[in-house]
Amino acid sequence: MRPRTTGRRVGLVLASVAAVMAFAAGWLSAAASRAGDRIGDIDVNVQPLPSVEGGSGRSYGTTHGYTEFRVHLKNTAQKAHTVQLTYPAEGRGGPVNQGIVATRTVHLTQEQGTSVAFYQPVSETVGMDMEVRVDGTPDAQTISVANVQGYRYESSICPSVLVSRDVPRDFRDYLHAASATRQARMGQRQNMPPPDSALGPGHWSDSGRTAADGSSVTPATGAPAMMASTPGSAPHRPGRRSSATEAEPFTLLRSEVPTSQWSPNWLGYSRFDAILLTEQDVETMSPQVRMAIRRYIECGGAVLIHGRSVPAAFSDNSVPDKDAGYFVGLGYVAASLQGMDAKKDAENRAGNAVDGDAPVLADNERGKEASSREKKGDDWAAAFDKLSQMPLHIYHPNQRPDKLFDLLVAEATIPVRGLFVLVMLFGLGIGPANIWLLTKYKKRIWLWWNVPAISLLTCLMVLGYAMLSEGWTGRGKNTTLTLLDERSHHATTFGYVSFYCPLTPSAGLHFADDTELALLSNQVDWERNYSRVRGRTGGAAKFIDWTNDQHLTSGWVNSRVPAYFQVRKNEDRRERLTIQQNGMEPPTIVNALGADIHRLYLADASGRLFETNDVFAGARQTLVPGVGGRLAAGTGLPYLRNIYTGGDWINVFNSWRDIQDASAMLAPGSYIAFLSKSPFVEAPLAGVTSEDTMAIVYGICKEQEDGR
Question: Looking at domain 38-46+62-146, which of 3.40.50.2300, 3.30.2130.10, 3.90.215.10, 2.60.40.150 is its CATH number?
Answer without folding.
Answer: 2.60.40.150
